[in-house]
Design a protein that fits this description.
The complex is a heterodimer. Helix content of chain A is 76%, strand content 1%. Chain A is an all-alpha fold. The mean pLDDT of chain A is 88. The chains are: A mainly alpha, B mainly alpha.
């Protein structure tokens, strides 16, 4: 009976799994094979063991790309989380026209990375961008992002926060709305200040949502490609390259599929480690709550 | 006490103003600059009062016919990817919602783990494979890629939404002699419509806006609108910003309106997607 019904269900589950196996899983496994061979176009691949990994891990350009990626993950994602949390609390505190404001905050979700780059390149144009002019008018330093690597990284960070704040905000806001208001009532009756209520009620109950938002954003920020590629192309002089741009360059600019594949698996393993850390944290949270 | 309240209201007003500036100013500048006379786009100081003009749109139409081909390609690919993702996710979500076995539970876990693989990884083997199969620069490649990268989230979302439909309805239909497919079509799909719309929002936004896969897998015939716009940015010495803004506004307007209209489903989808999968 069990096997018969499973066979009966198969046709309904099959499309999803065929797509995932043929487009994601099998190609990813094939990338392992690519990563232990040396191959370029029109050449038979030869076995090289872990040489590609060794070469990538010893490449100063990879170190730079990895460092930039980690900087974006650490700075952009945490700033985004802090801002998303503040906005969620602002919304939860009661606002006029809340639905309308919510839609306004969601708007960047609809914007393609390409269009976002157009907008931000224009706003921060070092000579005549409206934001540059506004910064100069109030005597603040401007972002000279086409020459200064640090400034370029700041612009990439701002751009990626702008694109993804809607996601982080919605996750935190939904979790905040799920906290029963009696808890705040009880805290108030017990004489808690708003700050105490935040630390003792809001923060602990938002914990799981914060972990989820962070994990998703770590994993997605780690793959960042389009923003960097379109804004700086990794320049000036490879100084803003990230891991995905490094991979793309190896594969499609230098035809070095072996090292590109090794880079790809380093990315997969890093993502798996991030996720494993997350599952570990969740487990600990569950057991400490029980 | 009274002045304290005023302070709170004022603080909130400032915060809301800052938030609106942050979210909307980049979009507003793109749209505004698309109808600004060319010589005023980079005027110092920034010009806010100007006579709107459609010259950039006319120029875009004259000089970048391939942008409009790109819009058509984007529309075809978005429609195909969305249909594929919705059909596959709804069927699988239905099975996962109504049945449970060790095999099925393991395969849900598998769907979640697959989301950890960065999309750029699969371009390496798929690029030569797609060439060998003669599918390079076709709509079908992007449709399948876009749908595949959302079917795992889509399935988990659909399971969550279908879980909320009482099983008694399936059983009643079954007693009336309906088969599994009929139940899916007549009972589940109408009641799970919000879930289907949530999945649709994700796939439509992704497929309409995506850059990396389009960049790797298309050249001329299936080039999507974002890719054409990126080429406009790329012609670095000759960027005509007016045309660039006109193209950006044209690409952005439909998807922005779509997200505004569907914001409820987007919020529901993001919330369910993050907590369940």
């Amino acid at each position: 009976m069990r096997t018969r019904s499973l066979a009966e269900l198969m046709p309904l589950v099959a499309p999803v799994h065929i797509l995932i196996l043929s487009v994601i899983v099998l190609p990813s496994i094939f990338v392992i094979w690519l990563s232990v061979t040396e191959s370029t176009y029109g050449q038979a691949p030869t076995w090289v063991g872990l040489a590609n990994y060794a070469r990538v891990l010893a490449d100063p350009a990879f170190h730079g790309a990895l460092w930039n990626t980690v900087v974006i993950v650490v700075f952009a994602v945490h700033i985004e989380l802090a801002v998303g949390l503040l906005v969620a609390l602002l919304f939860a505190s009661g606002l006029l026209l809340r639905r309308l404001l919510l839609v306004a905050v969601l708007a960047p979700y609809a914007v393609s990375e390409v269009i976002a780059v157009v907008a931000w390149r224009y706003l921060f144009d070092p000579d005549a961008g409206p934001v540059t002019l506004a910064l100069q008018a109030i005597g603040l330093p401007i972002l000279d992002w086409s020459f200064e690597p640090v400034h370029a990284m700041i612009l990439i960070g701002l751009l990626t926060i702008w694109l993804h704040l809607p996601f982080t905000f919605i996750i935190l806001y939904a979790a905040r709305l799920a906290i029963p208001s009696d808890l705040y009532e009880a805290a108030r009756i017990d004489g808690a200040t708003p700050l105490q209520a935040f630390r003792r009620v809001t923060l602990p109950l938002l914990g799981p949502a914060i972990v989820v938002a962070l994990l998703f954003r770590y994993i997605f920020a780690f793959r960042i490609f389009s923003e960097v590629w379109l804004l700086t192309g990794g320049g000036p002089a490879r100084s803003t390259e990230v891991v995905a741009v490094y991979l793309y360059q190896e594969a499609f600019s230098y035809n070095a599929f072996g090292t590109a594949a090794a880079t790809a698996w380093i990315m997969v393993v890093a993502s798996l480690l991030l996720a494993a850390g997350y599952v570990f944290l969740l487990r600990r949270q569950v057991t400490s709550n029980a | 006490m009274r002045s304290g309240r005023i302070l709170v209201v004022a603080g909130k007003a400032v915060a809301v103003a800052a938030l609106l500036t942050w979210s909307l100013v980049p979009i507003a500048f793109v749209v505004m600059s698309s109808v600004k006379p060319g010589q005023e786009i980079f005027a110092v100081p920034t010009v806010y009062a100007f006579e709107p003009t459609l010259e950039h749109y006319a120029e875009l139409w004259r000089r970048w016919g391939q942008f409009f081909d790109g819009l058509i390609d984007s529309a075809i690919i978005t429609a195909g990817a969305t249909a594929l993702a919705i059909i596959a996710s709804t069927c699988a979500g239905y099975v996962y919602s109504r049945n449970s076995s060790r095999f099925l539970n393991a395969s849900v876990m598998f769907l979640i783990v697959v989301r950890l693989i960065p999309p750029i990884v699969v371009t390496l083997p798929l690029f030569p494979l797609v060439n060998i199969m003669g599918l390079n620069d076709t709509h079908i490649v992007l449709m399948v890629l876009y749908a595949t990268f959302f079917v795992s989230l889509g399935t988990v979302l659909m399971r969550t939404f279908i879980d909320q439909i009482p099983r008694e309805l399936d059983e009643a239909a079954q007693i009336d002699g309906a088969g599994r497919l009929t139940i899916l079509r007549r009972v589940i799909v109408p009641l799970a419509a919000p879930g289907i719309l949530a999945v649709a929002v994700f796939v439509v936004v992704f497929a309409w806006n995506e850059f990396l896969f389009a960049f790797v897998f298309t050249a001329t015939k299936a080039k999507t609108a974002p890719l054409v716009i990126s080429e406009m940015i790329g012609s670095i010495d000759g960027v005509d910003w007016g045309i660039l803004f006109a193209a950006s506004t044209t690409q952005l307007a439909p998807i922005l309106i779509f997200v505004v209209l569907m914001n409820r489903y987007l919020v529901a989808g993001l919330t369910a997607g993050a907590t369940k999968g």
